[in-house]
Structure of PTS sugar transporter subunit IIB:
Amino acid sequence: MENLVLTRIDDRLIHGQVMTAWIKNKKATQVVIADDQVAEDEYMIEVLEMAIPEDIAIGIFSKEDTVTFLSQGLDEPTILLVKGPEVLNYLVDHGIEIDEVDVGGMGAGNDRSVLYKNISTSEKENEEFRKLLDKNVNVFIQVMPQNKPMNIAECLK
């Protein structure tokens, strides 16, 4: 998709130096968050709006509204943020062209085990990653722009 400069999975969404580095690296002027729960949470919306640099536009949508928004095309360099791979499969299945996905942050949890360094996933999430790979989406792990990307298929073996 034209002007989609980064699609990133990070369960913290917008946070500190990581987002600042990616925004600069990708020369993004807009961030879109696709998350059903966050889109319904006025407090979290306010927190995320305050966490993003002032000169960067932000849109926070349910996955359905994200499809509608992205289907109209993007006029400016945009970073798409989601918390997990299932949302990306939904978007791709609904006609949104996503060529590559950066897995940046998925923390530990009860049903998760370490996939690679600080990336933890559940078996369901691993299956969602496999579905993305089957759709010819390049999925890789790259926490910061200066890190070398690691193909997630290697981790899923």
Helices lie at 16-26, 36-39, 42-51, 63-71, 85-93, 123-134, 152-156. Strands lie at 4-10, 30-34, 57-61, 78-82, 100-105, 113-116, 119-121, 138-141, 150-151.
